[in-house]
Design goal:
342 residues; seven-stranded parallel β-sheet; globular; TIM Barrel; Uroporphyrinogen_deCO2ase_HemE (chains A, B); alpha/beta; two-stranded antiparallel sheet; 48% helix; 9 strands; Uroporphyrinogen decarboxylase (chains A, B); homodimer
Chain lengths: 342, 342
């Protein structure tokens, strides 16, 4: 299908060396990103294809990463569902979803009309990257989107979504069904526009107990993944804080399971079995360390993988804004050098 | 030694029913706490034995919990090390610890002189609770205290402590040694004053990878626990976010391992073996749910324990300030009713 080592690794095929990219590799730690960002708001940046493409390309040029990921925000397709979005600086919805009437009022966007900039960015990037690196599209998992929509903003205790989940389970289910269908159409539109892999981010999927994950979250993520036009397009599923329930995450059916740094990669692979690939899992704060420490940690993770096919190197969460960019670049070089077949 | 079912369960002895208490059971969700708190600052409350004792007693009277925990703050003994502490509203140190000179300047407090109010609160409470409930003393684990001391406040990325850990490992080690010795003296002073069990809170112990936990955190917690005058006084060790590395947490040597809600209690007990007791692990947000849902979740956790001795029921983290107090009371009743031997 493809000679890109990133895609081969997603399929569990042998590669010449371990592919590597970084979650949030287009972002604030890069001065070249800040230069673009200083001229426009975050939302304008997401909605202007030329600029979104420009910042997507930056880390490929600078880091030499083996895959690019579309620059966007997981809440981009939620706004046209009928929720006005602001960043202050975190995402804020003016009128959060709290009642069945609020849920009924949500519409499923028409992707080519409502988020054309996302699809146009993908088209620009595919032309730009042809023969160079594959392009990953992405979206939030239904639960993580629901958290933002119901809480209205980031939360420490997630009281609102939990109240809905436990006290109004039918409303919760109808909201999750609607988001799942939106997400399915959104990610399929990205695939149609040219995304060569899809990463589903479940940033908040790990806030619940394993039992509640199985009951309230897994069915929707599973349905979403089943509904994607996946032929030739691997699906990466990353649930932050899920090291204690990787068996459940695996059941969602993705091709690749993203790992945070709270579980050893070797242990995680033993639990998951080799029929699923993994992506991860360097602690993002290791990039504060001196180069020799970074190299040691990269080596440890490669050693834990122990030559098994189906490993994409990444951080265990997004790169932090205060990390020195040259440390990120050095980390990428370490992966490429240390994993190269002799 | 003692007829208190809480202490028996800590030792893994059979009990008539599962003992239960709640982390942060003296706190903002209780109107009677807010009434006291409205008259004094948080620090004044911690430093006034009569008031600290009053709020410690409140949840025993209201909830009927099987153990009381001293009302205090984990940073109380850090201030007399030489760091001015404020709450705004989270804890803030004016001059965080960043250099070897900062570390060298820290002193080990003389507990009876520097934190007499903590020890006096314990003495008041022991008289008050005699024959009723046992009293748990507590402190922060060395790493969690170090995080606050180095970051100066709560943090999302823990950049400062990580920089010290990785770039100045000798400074990091000397800081941790000093905190561990302070902690040892502080907790032994609590035991001498009458604390009948000690809980060590490692709120931030789960932010690192298992490898880094083993290298940078575990040695100090182990040394602390080894240095306590534990005869007859069980040690509870709670590391938030440690479900993927309970084998390491167990090696620190406590009598009881505290569990957050991210791992099933049955799975955790299988991993830990029955020679160590466990405490936990209801998701604190379940207390937002209607009573029938709370009861179902309590039953599930008791079922997961499956009659094994050495289980103390608790939340998986502190009770949230916006929870209805009657839900907390109902949860306690459920544990007491559902676990009673027929």
């Amino acid at each position: 299908m493809s000679d890109y080592r990133f895609l081969k690794a997603c399929w569990g095929e042998p590669v010449d060396r371990t592919p590597v990219w970084l979650m949030r590799q287009a972002g604030r730690y890069l001065p070249q990103y800040m230069a673009v960002r200083s001229k426009v708001s975050f939302l304008e940046l997401c909605k202007t294809p030329e600029l979104a493409a420009e910042v997507t390309i930056q880390p490929i040029d600078y880091l030499g990463a083996d895959a690019a990921i579309l620059f966007s925000d997981i809440l981009t397709p939620v706004e046209p569902m009928g929720l006005k979005l602001d960043f202050a600086p975190g995402p804020v919805f003016e009128s959060p979803v709290r009642t069945q009437a609020d849920i009924d009022a949500l519409r499923i966007p028409v992707m080519e009309e409502d988020v054309p900039y996302v699809l146009e960015t993908i088209r620009i990037l595919r032309r730009e990257f042809e023969g160079r690196v594959p392009l990953i599209g992405f979206g939030g998992a239904p639960f993580t989107l629901a958290c933002y929509m119901v809480e209205g903003k980031g939360s420490k205790d997630f009281a609102q979504i939990k109240r809905m989940m436990y006290s109004a389970p039918e409303s919760y289910a109808s909201l999750m069904e609607k988001i799942t269908e939106m997400d399915r159409q959104y990610l399929n539109a990205q695939i149609a526009a040219g995304a060569q892999a899809i990463q589903i981010f479940d940033t908040w999927g790990g806030i619940v107990s394993p039992g509640d994950y199985e009951k309230y979250i897994l069915p929707y993520t599973t349905k979403l993944i089943e509904g994607l036009n996946r032929t030739g397009v691997p699906i990466i599923h990353f649930v932050k804080g899920a090291g204690t329930m990787l068996d459940l995450v695996k059941r969602a059916g993705s091709d690749v399971v993203g790992l945070d740094w709270h579980i050893g990669l070797g242990k995680a692979r033993n639990l998951l079995g080799t029929e699923v690939a993994v992506q991860g899992n360097l602690d993002p704060t290791i990039l504060y360390a001196p180069p020799e420490h970074i190299e040691r940690e990269v080596k440890r993770i490669l050693d834990e993988n122990d030559g098994r096919p189906g490993h994409i190197f990444n951080l265990g969460h997004g790169i932090l804004p205060t990390v020195p960019p040259e440390h990120a670049k050095f980390m990428v070089e370490c992966v490429q050098r240390l994993s190269a077949k002799g």
